[in-house]
Write a structure and sequence with these properties.
The complex is a heterodimer. Chain A is α/β, with parallel strands linked by helices. Chain A is 23% helix and 33% strand. In chain A, β16 (329-335), α6 (348-354) and β17 (364-369) form a beta-alpha-beta unit. Chain B has helices spanning 7-10, 16-29, 60-66, 101-118, 142-153, 163-170, 190-202, 215-219, 241-265, 280-294, and strands spanning 42-48, 70-75, 81-87, 122-128, 132-139, 179-184, 206-213, 226-230, 236-239, 269-274. In chain B, the strands form three sheets. In chain B, strands 5-4-3-6-7-10 form a six-stranded mixed beta sheet, with helices on both faces. In chain B, strands 1-2 form a two-stranded antiparallel sheet. At the A-B interface, β2 and α2 of A face β8, β9 and α9 of B. β2 of chain A pairs parallel with β8 of chain B, so a sheet runs across the interface.
Chain lengths: 694, 295
């Protein structure tokens, strides 16, 4: 057992103990002489009670001395160190794993936290050992092994920087345990200097702790303040039905009980203010604010939404995004059986399927032409060309169509009564990858079991819708070369053939052995027709656009796969702070970028072998959805419940951290016990005094 | 209690006779039965009627002539000789109030003597400490009263106590049996004192013991510690009254009860007085005892 004091200067009052002794002696000496008639009874009474009186006197003196001593000790705040497993004597060395929370929620308190860390080092003695870690959802071991070099630890604390990551106390605990496990020192502590916010304590329980040691004390030093804060959780982009105007939904969450009024929200695209608005939000509410933008030209844009407010955290008031503005999907419908009545036209149902609400602009814009126009029309303006019941192709048309496909264009054939079978047989496989055997005239249905629902063309479709599609005539066709049958009739003849070229740059060709109108089938009247035709366009167009526009969180890995036909010679990433980093290719055509520690817009620049330079964007945002932006404190009893066998302490008064730490690490304060004893002694003293005079 | 005089009030009066008169007259006025009835048939004198007198002694002739009430008094044959033994040792000089035990005892003595002489009894006074300091023979004359009162007025505590030696010698002063009234704090060898009291009792004397103690002697209610010095033996004892009170009270009770029980057993009247007890109680005890003796 060892006793030390927080306020040892109070011990200067110990000489006051002489007072009760003096009082005791004076009270005896000051007795005056009193003449009394007969003293024999007094003498006899004194003789009989002298032992009892003396005992009582000394007991009272002792009690008074104890009361005074314990009172002085209580003010001096004594710390009791017990010898044993858990509490060590003052001279026994300590092993401390000091962990500084540098997650972005620490922004208001980070400087204080660093000062607290330095103060903690003051508690250490020359024979104590410490290590120093920075903690977010990733542990950065600044001083990875236990050392007596306090100066080194101090330097690392001074140079520590705030990250933009979230918090994981669990990660810190596991790292701390693994370091302390290697030490022979028995008195071990893991000290977190943190804002003690609730979000950092996810998934903590004893089973999740590797190398868990119940003898290691876990000490949290709370340096945070519960400041009101709001942040942008997420952003979603959508097209508006109104022309070219786009809509952005900004999801804002209030992490505090305070209500906010008229907060300005701004939208910036390519650093130009493109939209703004105001929002009001109640305590702990989550709302969505719509902002509109107007970008006329297609291309790849970057931007951010910003809340103009001074709140607890500024980082979460900005959310970055990437915006790919594309042209609308344009398709060309070549009508091989033009009629005076639009209703009877070969492409009537197709056009209707692409744009069912003729009063508004659809996502798919269709243009109708006759076969002869193929000779001079700019085919590259269209993503897909539908060839509907075209009897034959002129040599120029054939040549232009083949080039079109090679440049990535897509063809879809609908074969009807105007088709000249012989002419089609002469077409090359690059243009018509099938052979027409003959026309079949009989009632026919689609075999839905033959449809591969995982195929990109069918995966969004309810294929049961094909069940009632009936045919009276169709062509018996066979695939050529490596063309594939995607679906069959019930007679097992092909319903749809697809040609995929080995060059990924090439477009695709789809062949349906029936017309696009109602001449041979009820297909245009079935509900499945409209979505299927739109899916054909989306399938053929989207296959060329594989980029994912989703934003990354800080610490996520950015990964891009290049097509083998378009491999880059040189790839580099420019960070939001304009730091340029070259990236090597891994696995032939993949690049990975791991250093996403900075929130903002990153530029990916690469040069392909054809000498063209490309610039793309990807964005990194703080993980606000993880509730890191909520500065609400964790309840220490909850933590204790999660790790019941651990010794867990919380120091709220970080200004007094050294004293509190000494208390926890080196002993137990017994002031309250002493005050309790003083009260007991005073009661006993009172009782004895009354008893003495009775 | 309130109908009796507070002893402290007596201190204010100028002389002992007056004190005795005040006590006795007041006491007599309060009695229902006259204590002044005589036994002789020889007419002595008339006196005015006082309430409580028996009507059979009323002189109807005088009433008829003068319309005033007179009582016929007869010359009484005195049958009682009383000796008052008053302790004047130094210990009797202790008093925690306005007056000492000796003062109180002298008031009691004076009152008793006054009453006795009014009764035509013979009264003798013996002042003693370790010896008989002064002896006043028993007489019943009116002038005797003045003599006794003068002596009591000038009384001072002196010497050590030796009650038993006085009791041993008193027999030689008493020519015939009578009433012995001992007024003392009885701080002496209890066994010896009781032995001689029993002896005197066996000689057909009637004995009344007035045990006079101060309130502090009974309760030792001092708060602060004192070095107690004996008034007679000059012995010094340091004591914390709070501490010893319980034991002291046990001892003093034992001391008192020894006298009380032994006296009761031997037909000796024992009366404990503290200095706040009204003197009339003493007179009452005397009258009771006298009544017994005369019957």
């Amino acid at each position: 057992m060892n006793l030390s004091f927080f306020n040892s200067y109070f011990l200067l009052f110990l000489p006051l103990l002489i007072i009760p002794i003096i009082i005791h002696l004076i009270s005896v000496k000051k007795a005056r002489i009193l003449e009394f008639s007969e003293v024999k009874f007094i003498k006899l009474a004194v003789t009989r009670t002298i032992k009892k009186i003396r005992l009582l006197q000394y007991l009272l003196l002792l009690l008074r001395l104890l009361v005074l001593t314990f009172l002085i000790f209580a003010f001096a705040r004594p710390i009791l160190q017990q010898t044993g497993m858990l509490s060590k004597s003052e001279d026994e060395p300590l092993a401390i794993c000091l962990i500084l929370d540098n997650s972005y929620s620490m922004a208001p308190a980070f400087q204080t936290a660093k000062e607290v860390c330095e103060n903690i080092l003051k508690v250490l003695k020359i024979y104590d050992k410490s290590c120093f870690l920075l903690l977010s959802n990733k542990v950065t071991p600044e001083v990875p092994t236990l050392t007596s070099n306090i100066r080194l630890v101090k330097e690392k604390i001074k140079s520590a920087k705030l990250s933009q990551r979230t918090t994981s106390i669990l990660a810190g605990l596991n790292y701390g345990y693994s370091i302390l496990k290697e030490s022979n020192i028995t008195n071990k502590q893991i000290i977190f200097v943190t804002d003690f916010a609730k979000h950092g304590f996810n998934a903590i329980d004893e089973k999740a702790l590797s190398n868990f040691d119940k003898n290691v004390k876990i000490i949290f030093v709370d340096v945070g303040k519960e400041i009101s804060n709001i942040g942008i959780n997420d952003i979603s982009l959508s097209f508006s039905a109104l022309g070219e105007q786009g809509k952005i939904n900004v999801e804002v969450e209030n992490f505090s009980p305070v209500k906010f009024y008229k907060i300005p929200v701004s939208l910036y695209i390519n650093d130009n203010k493109s939209g703004y608005g105001f929002l009001g939000i109640n305590g702990y509410q989550k709302i969505s604010k719509n902002l509109f933008y107007n970008v006329k030209r297609k291309g790849k844009y970057s931007g951010y939404a910003k809340l103009d407010i001074e709140d607890g955290l500024t980082l979460d008031n900005v959310y970055y995004f990437r915006l790919d503005i594309e042209d609308k999907k344009k398709v060309l419908c070549v009508d091989g059986d033009v009629k005076l009545s639009q209703f009877l036209s070969e492409t009537f149902y197709l056009k209707l399927a692409f744009n069912p609400d003729t009063k508004r602009t659809s996502e798919i814009i269709s243009t109708v032409c006759v076969p002869d126009e193929l000779e001079w029309k700019n085919l590259d303006d269209y993503s897909v060309i539908f060839l509907c019941n075209v009897d034959k192709f002129s040599p120029d048309s054939v040549k232009r169509l083949i080039e079109y496909v090679k440049r990535g264009g897509n063809l879809v054939y609908f074969l009807g009564d105007k088709v000249n079978i012989e002419e089609y047989k002469r077409l090359s496989e690059e243009l018509f990858p099938a052979t027409i055997v003959q026309m079949v005239e009989k009632q026919e249905f689609i075999d839905i079991n033959s449809i591969n629902s995982n195929h990109g063309l069918f995966k969004l479709l309810d294929i049961n819708g094909f069940e009632k599609v009936a045919f009276t005539k169709y062509y018996h066709i066979l695939p050529k070369g490596d063309s594939l049958i995607l679906a069959n009739f019930k007679s097992n003849l092909p319903f749809l053939i697809e040609k995929n070229f080995k060059y990924t740059k090439y477009g695709k060709i789809l062949i349906f052995p029936f017309p696009a109108d109602r001449d041979w089938t009820n297909f245009p009247l079935r509900p499945v027709y409209l979505p299927f035709m739109q899916d054909i366009v989306n399938y053929l167009v989207k296959e060329t656009e594989k980029e994912i526009q989703k934003s990354l969180y800080v610490g996520d890995v950015y990964r891009k796969t290049f097509s083998l036909s378009n491999l880059p010679k040189k790839v580099e990433v420019v960070s939001p702070s304009d730091k340029v980093m070259a990236l090597p290719l891994i696995s032939n055509n993949i690049i990975e970028f791991k250093n996403t520690e900075e929130v903002g817009i990153y530029k990916l620049r690469y040069v392909t072998y054809d000498g063209l330079s490309h610039t793309e964007y990807f964005t990194v945002n703080p993980d606000v959805k993880s509730k890191e932006s909520s500065l609400k404190k964790q309840d220490i009893s909850e933590v204790r419940k999660c790790i019941p066998s651990a010794k867990i302490f919380l120091i709220k008064d970080y200004k007094n951290v050294t004293n509190e730490l000494i208390l926890i690490m080196r002993g137990r304060e017994i002031s309250k016990v002493l005050i309790g004893l003083v009260i007991v002694f005073l009661i006993v003293e009172g009782y004895l005094s009354i008893r003495r005079t009775r | 209690m309130s109908k009796f005089l507070n002893p402290t009030d007596l201190v204010k009066l100028s002389n002992m006779k007056l004190r005795a008169k005040v006590v006795v007259d007041g006491f007599i006025a309060g009695l229902h039965d006259s204590a002044l009835k005589g036994l002789s048939l020889d007419f002595a004198e008339h006196r005015e009627y006082v309430p409580g007198d028996e009507l059979k002694y009323l002189d109807w002739k005088i009433l008829g002539r003068t319309d005033r009430y007179y009582i016929k008094q007869y010359k009484e044959e005195s049958t009682l000789t009383s000796y008052i033994l008053l302790d004047i040792s130094l210990s009797m000089g202790y008093g925690s109030k306005l007056f000492t035990k000796l003062q109180y005892a002298s008031y009691l003595t004076a009152s008793l003597a006054y009453l006795m002489l009014r009764q035509q009894d013979k009264v003798g006074l013996i002042l003693f400490n370790e010896n008989i300091a002064e002896y006043i023979p028993a007489k019943s004359s009116t002038s005797h009263m003045g003599f006794i009162m003068n002596r009591l007025d000038n009384i001072m505590p002196i010497g050590k106590t030796s009650i038993w030696e006085v009791l041993e010698n008193i027999n030689s002063f008493m020519k015939k049996r009578g009433l012995i009234i001992l007024i003392s704090d009885l701080y002496n060898d209890e066994d010896k004192v009781l032995r001689y009291l029993k002896y005197l009792n066996s000689k057909k004397n009637e004995i009344i013991v007035f045990h006079i103690l101060d309130k502090e002697e009974l309760y030792l209610s001092f708060k602060e510690p004192f070095i107690f010095e004996g008034m007679e033996d000059k012995l010094k004892v340091l004591a914390l009254p709070d501490m010893i009170r319980y034991e002291y009270k046990n001892l003093i009770e034992k001391f008192i009860s020894k006298y009380k029980l032994t006296c009761e057993k031997n037909n000796i009247d024992y009366v404990l007085f503290n200095t706040e007890t009204p003197l009339e109680y003493g007179l009452l005890h005397y009258l009771e005892k006298r009544g017994k003796l005369i019957k």
